[in-house]
Structures are given as C-alpha cells and as structure tokens.
Amino acid sequence: DGEVHINELKSGNAEVFWNPTSEVRRQRLKRHIVLFEEQTDFESERLWQHVTSAINKGDQHKATQEKFVLEEEQRNAARERRENGTEWKPLLFQHDAATNEWRYKYEDLRPWDPLNDIAQFEKDGILQTMERHLSTRMSNHKTTCINNQITRHKRSAKDCRRRKTSDQPSNHSQNTESSCSTPESVQELSDDDGKYLWFESLCAQCGKEMNHLKEIHSAVLSLQRAQQDIHR
Question: Where is the composition biased (Polar residues) (predicted)?
C-alpha cells in the first residue's frame, strides 16, 4: 500500500517506482481469515504467533529463539514417526513425483466463468466455487413447459371424449369427432409416454431461450479453451 522508490547509488537520485493511488487501494482484494480463536494448532497464524509478535516488537533475538523452538518440535515429531513407522499423510497437499513438488489437492486452475460462477471461497482448507447451474435451470424450465403442454393435451382429449359421448345429433357428433385434434387412444398414454410424445413440442419462448443459452455456452467454452492454452 505504500510507495516504492528506486535509489540510484552512484548519483544518489531517488525515483518513484510505484505509487498506489486511493483508487488502487479501493480495488484491492479484501482479506478474509479464520478467527484466531477458531484456528487449529497447526494453522500458520496460531503456530507462528510468538515469532510474529517478536518480529513486530523488533526483537530479532526472541524471534530467532521462537523459530528454533518450532522447528525443533517439528524435527522431533518427524523422528518419532520414523521410529514408530507412522506414515505422514498431508490433509491438503499431495506430492507430484514428476516435478518433485508438493501441490495443493483442491487447486482450481480452470478459467473463471462469469455466466456460471458466482463466488469462490475456502471452507476447511478446501477451495470451492459457488455456481449458478444454468443446465439445471434450463432443465427445470423445460420440464415445466412439457408438463404444461401435457396438461393442456389431456384436457383437450377429455373435452373431446365428453363431446363424443354427449347426446347430440349424429351429424353434429361426427363433425365434433372429426374436429377433435387429439386421438382417443392418446388418452390412455402414461405420463412418461406423454412426456416423450410432447418432448419436442416446447413453447417458442423456451426454445429461443435454450438456443440462446447454447450459443452462450459455446462461446464460453471457446474462451475457456483459449485461456487454458494461455495458462499452459
């Protein structure tokens, strides 16, 4: 948050290298940490609290002593595990044999999807992303549309059958029967059959929305592939 200067030793001139404005400070990411009282013994802030306190007080000797105490405890714990044949299994990290490095188990390197990703947060050391689930929303809307069509379809068939069984002149009955757009056999279809029958008969608004979301999804996938290439 402060200014950074470059000092030219030969000439003694000082040049401003970085000067964060108030606008830059407002845009900085907010820092969220677990409350100290809720941290476990091996979380960094609690584990290194005495070292940090000594550094803040300017007591380098005390900081070095506290650091030595911590490291010695870790060496002793590792020695006891070797003697007991206990394997150390990290909770959040795994060893990458190819690079001989330790990597975070739950790292998320995929590009941020502004259409589906809402927020990213950490819970119990695990990085998680809250998503909108557009596909689920599309599916729910499609199911509602299909059910509405089936209801209208069955109501139309019921009205048709009622008209056919009503006491009307024969020529009128024939006209009514022929004007019915729903065959009588369809009335016996199960709900599943009706869904398959009307699956493609979605409303115009639903169809437009699905096509629009497909186009957006295709564009996002293209951007994601490009960002992954750049990342590699």
Answer: 167-187
